[in-house]
Design brief:
The complex is a heterodimer of chains A (286) and B (321). Chain A has helices spanning 2-6, 10-15, 20-43, 47-50, 65-72, 76-107, 113-125, 129-142, 149-172, 177-184, 189-200, 202-218, 221-226, 235-241, 250-270, 272-281. Chain A is mostly helical. Helices cover 69% and strands 2% of the residues of chain B. Chain B is built from 13 helices and 2 strands, in the order αββαααααααααααα. At the A-B interface, helix 3, helix 6, helix 7, helix 8 and helix 9 of A face helix 1, helix 3, helix 4, helix 5 and helix 7 of B. Chain A: It is a multi-pass membrane protein.
Chain lengths: 286, 321
């Protein structure tokens, strides 16, 4: 008996189901999930039931009409196409450029690495508003407004710094034997990076990829400013500008939202490890 | 170990021949490597410089000029301080500055505290940890515009579920119709979306703290509270500092959440600097004044960055070796 009194309450806590940790976990889960649930439910609730009080917590007749409206009446399919095209191409460029730039910063003799890294980190957090007008004017004179290139270019530039940062952190920790054996075999540096380094940093590239892709899909300020024509809008712009001043078609908005958030969420869940690794690579490693 | 310690001093070694042929000598190989490295870096630096640095300088020039817009182009006349004078005498700019600062301080502080708590829960959770982390990634992956529409819908005064709940408990308030509740609502929407990000970063820092330290402390009779303040927090400092920095600078540039959720209203209660700047530039077409707002916003961010340079240095220090 005396041993149980002396032992810290830790073990007791582990066995009980209703301990502080589990209860907090449930609360966290509920608070996080409730708005997501509301988004899902209202995307399948008929418009007539959406504005009722008390609220409809589950529709009497779930419907897919909002989804049909989003893709039928509104050009939502076109927005998805624009977003995917821009995000995919921007991500590809970011991956290619950040692999080589990260490699140079992590493992090659370059002077001024410190200032370059600080410069990149500062750029990656610089507010978009500070560059959006000049960029608009430049793009206007180059005829890049309302084109895909006009978005890909700034997206690459704004996502590169953080990507380089993550890649450098991954590459820094690789064993140097990798390159040495490749060099003994007579491979050039570029060849070494491409065929020896690239396969080993897949997780890093993956994290960069998921990050950049998500950032491009969610960017709003530049997309709205540069590509204002309906045909060239991206998903966030489309979702923000659905409807008129007098009526906001929330059902359609939510259907469109689910249709976009779901793939990103599934992507994030499937590649959870890579995402988490990417999030923390910039912050914790160093 | 010795294989990769590269001596930066070698860079200054005099060049003997310009032949690109790889030479067996270490000095020349080193030079070749440096050249390759710059070849790898240049595209990145050019793209980043062209799309960010040049426009920033352009903004700076516009902010000190009268900008005349015509159909075919624009003309800058200056230099003048008029734009900054207009800024400093505008109540709306002060209101935007105050909102942005308040919003940044409160959201970052709350997200940090809640994020740390959630990370502690996640670390101790034995069952369902993966699921909870997966769930936490959903708000992070959600498009800000979507979460803004969702919160606006939930807070709508006539059919919003949250307004209904407030009514139920006897609180009569038009949440998005009055300044203080609207400000709180925008902050809560941001906290809901971003706290998971902070939690996951903090968790990554938490798991690097050696278990033995906690065991030693508990043998010495320390309770959980003491362990947290004496062991956990000190070792989380650098992680938290980076999280604070990133979040602060992001919050300071906030645009899409208030744009969609409240339109900056009621009045200008939830209008951040970025939204004010955008409106002045693209709706009032007053490019000079807009540029002044953009430049001051960027300037404040830059000052915060320089103040935090110590943190950067700690992160970058290793590279300088």
């Amino acid at each position: 008996m005396s041993t149980t009194a002396v032992k810290p309450p830790r073990r007791r806590g582990r066995r009980r189901v209703f301990n502080t940790v589990n209860v907090s976990a449930v609360v966290i889960a509920l608070v996080t999930a409730a708005p997501i649930y509301w988004l899902l439910v209202n995307s399948i609730t008929p418009t007539g039931e959406m504005g009722t009080l008390p609220p409809t917590f589950w529709p009497s007749e779930p419907t897919l009409t909002h989804y049909e409206e989003a893709f039928g009446q509104h050009a939502f399919g076109r927005y998805v196409f624009n977003s995917l095209l821009v995000a995919c191409l921007a991500t590809t460029f970011v991956l290619g450029l950040s692999l080589f730039a990260g490699y140079a910063l992590a493992r090659m003799p370059v002077r001024g690495k410190g200032p370059i890294m600080v410069f990149l980190l500062m750029i990656s957090v610089f507010p978009t508003i500070a560059v959006v007008t000049p960029l608009y004017m430049i793009e206007r004179s180059l005829g890049l407004l309302n084109t895909h290139v006009g978005l890909i270019l700034p997206y690459v530039a704004f996502n590169l710094p953080f990507a380089v940062w993550i890649m450098r952190n991954y590459l820094k920790d690789l064993p140097y034997e990798l390159e040495e054996s490749a060099q003994i075999d007579g491979a050039s540096t570029t060849r070494t990076v491409w065929s020896v380094i690239l396969p080993t940093v897949r997780p890093g590239l993956f994290a960069v990829g998921v990050f950049t892709f998500t950032a491009c899909l969610t960017e709003f300020l530049m997309a709205m400013t540069f590509n204002s024509e309906d045909d060239m809008r991206t998903v966030p712009v489309g979702i923000a500008l659905f409807g008129s001043e007098f009526e906001v078609p929330f059902g359609t908005i939510f259907a469109a939202s689910v249709a976009t958030v779901l793939p990103i969420a599934v992507l994030a869940l499937v590649f959870r490890r890579a995402v988490v690794a990417g999030m923390t690579a910039g912050a914790v490693k160093g | 170990m010795t294989a990769h310690t590269q001596d930066p001093a070698r860079d200054t070694a005099p060049e003997r021949a310009r032949t690109p042929r790889p030479a067996p000598r270490a000095g020349r190989a080193h030079r070749a490597a440096t050249r390759t490295a710059w070849a790898y870096l240049t595209p990145t630096l050019v793209v980043v410089g062209a799309v960010t640095v040049f426009p920033v300088l352009f903004s700076l020039a516009m902010s000190f000029s009268h900008v005349d817009l015509s159909y075919s182009g624009f003309e800058l006349e200056g230099p003048t301080l008029d734009n900054y004078v207009a800024l400093l005498t505008s109540a709306r700019w002060y209101s935007a500055l105050a909102f942005t600062l308040f919003y940044t301080v409160v959201t970052v502080a709350v997200e940090l505290a809640l994020g740390t708590l959630i990370a502690l829960v996640l670390e101790r959770l034995t069952a369902g940890r993966g699921w909870l982390m997966a769930l936490l990634l959903v708000p992070w992956a959600m498009i800000t515009v979507v979460s803004a529409q969702l919160w606006a819908f939930m807070l709508n005064s006539s059919y919003g579920v949250i307004s209904w709940f407030f009514d139920l408990v006897g609180l009569e308030v038009v949440i998005l119709g009055e300044p203080a509740p609207a400000i709180a609502a925008v902050m809560i929407a941001d906290i809901w979306k971003t706290t998971p990000f902070v939690a996951i970063i903090v968790l990554a820092g938490l798991v690097t703290i050696p278990r033995e330290q906690y065991e030693a402390a508990s043998i010495d009779g320390a309770n959980a509270w003491h362990s947290f303040w004496r062991i956990t927090l000190p070792q989380l400092t650098s992680t938290l500092a980076i999280a604070v920095l990133f979040r602060t600078l992001q919050s300071f540039g906030v645009f899409d959440l208030p744009f969609v959720m409240t339109g900056g209203g009621p009045g200008t209660a939830t209008e951040p600097l970025a939204l004010l700047g955008w409106r002045v530039m693209f709706q009032s077409l007053n490019l000079g004044a807009g540029a002044a707002i953009a430049v001051t916003t960027g300037g404040i961010v830059l000052i915060m960055c320089l103040l935090a340079l110590k943190v950067f240095r700690a992160q970058v220090g290793e590279v300088r070796r």
